[in-house]
């Protein structure tokens, strides 16, 4: 008697695999979503949700114990009409953000050119100049507070040693010098990062173009100014924009070294948000959230403006 | 699975059940404490002694203390308490009224043995009839000085310890001329010490009532008496009263600056000065034979209250309103609030306390210091609370930048400092 061969039922694993393999068009979207879900979940929880929550908070007065009172545009009205410290913080942050990136990138480029030119001890200098990038902000801040100390800091000791005692000052205690002192400290920390990126861009340059310039009797500085820098301009501009974004959010260094003083001369928007949130003898998070939302919009706007201003108009061909 | 494995599991399962349910398993109760004073050895010893005594009286209970510096402590508390978490007990200063207003700490009227606490120490922590903390540390604002340095300058401090403003300015000029920092102070990490000299003179000039009004926004900073004090203070600043590193020196650094490196003439400080200064020299304390003296703050001309001085409750302990074991937490606080522990605090820290204590118990090499401290406070009228205890919001932030930092550092002229303080604080 013939036996009827019934088709074997696929196992659970086979059914799941088949479901993910089934696709519409070319891309296996179900598989893609499966792998992207954890990262999206982390992004939603730790990036997207805080942003939207801050926006929500800015229209409320927030107190501990989930106490919320809707205040409409009150926080924003107070911010724009009766908060002089906010405008001081904005001014300081914009000075920092528009001056410091060029200093950072320029120093990084100079160091990269020095290494590219093959100075003696290249390996040592590469490590030495990159080391500050690896040091935490806290250590950098404490170190530079010692360097700037009026009585025994390296800067003033050096000035006294060379007979320039009249130039000594409390670098972090004087409104005129506090912000520049912080900018220099920050530039010192990040010069190595910019150096490494510029060095990579320099090494990626086509040798034929540089050799052609040498054949045309192009001196070193002319080669740098007319050949090398134009060719690595996209890299430099990207570094400027990255540095700009970083400066617009600067907090750690300022908080440890000066806490926004003296007389708000180093107050940045981030330190001001922190003070309003945690040092204002209230627990209200609504007003500082409004400051944060306004600044978020300002940063986005500035980045778009910079990207448009620095866009590549002519494509370099080589 | 094989028969042997099944048999093994069948034999072991009852054994596990016996171990889990038959043997008594005692869960240890833990009282968590977050405290300031991480680098103040004598206070750490005191609190840990209280913890050991509490644990001995309450078997099965452990006190777990985390030590912080002040600013990091408040940052940690802000985050934890907003989330409804945090320790059972924590250190708190009485100027942090937002913790009371937001009901984050427990009222302690029914929890502490108030018979063991000085009645006057409850004031700064009492709001709407409820007291919210154990006022462990009490301070008076003192003007410490180096007796030998003062002698070298040829200045004799009067018996009552008070110099008038002319004498004080003269002293400052003499010290500067001799290359000695007249008044050592650092404001890099604290929001109050830079204004000690200024607010003590304001208190003496205005008297308690009007000074209280000034602090609470009911008296204008443009009042002539206030302007006179600011103007005199500017003379001191121009004469070099503070070190150049005033803005960048931390409070902890100002202590060794005063007594040894490089040494200064005077140091305005809360009377908790001793909790750092009386540590061993290798741990940042003053040298054993340091000629420490205590004088009064200078008396401005036409002062309404020459004998006025600021006191206040400083380091206190509170109970988290969200704690699940308030009785246990209160029992730990009560362990610190006994006359025996109050006297122990006094003897080991040489700082006043709000807990009842016996000052005669202070003996040994620091007994003379305590006698001098008591003598300097014998004829004094107290105003309770330094300015940060009374000021709030924008007024407080402006005070920190102007009266604590900018003006004493010589960064602001008198009229600018006055107008900034008035705009921020005066509620016309």
Account of the 3D structure:
The complex is a heterodimer of chains A (318) and B (428). By secondary structure, chain A is an all-alpha fold. Chain A has a domain at 87-266: MetI-like (MetI-like fold, Orthogonal Bundle). Chain A contains 14 helices and 2 strands. In chain A, a hairpin with a 3-residue loop joins strand 1 and strand 2. The radius of gyration of chain A is 27 Å and the shape is flat. Chain A starts with 11 loop residues before the first helix and ends in a 9-residue tail after the last helix. By secondary structure, chain B is of the alpha/beta class. In chain B, 44% of the residues lie in helices and 14% in strands. In chain B, the strands form 3 sheets. In chain B, strands 6, 7, 8, 9, 10 and 12 form a 6-stranded mixed beta sheet that branches. A 4-stranded mixed beta sheet of chain B has the order 2-1-3-11, sandwiched between helices. In chain B, helix 2 runs antiparallel to helix 13 (339-349) and helix 8 runs antiparallel to helix 9 (224-238). The termini of chain B are far apart. The mean pLDDT of chain B is 90. The interface between A and B is medium-sized, with 26 and 34 residues.
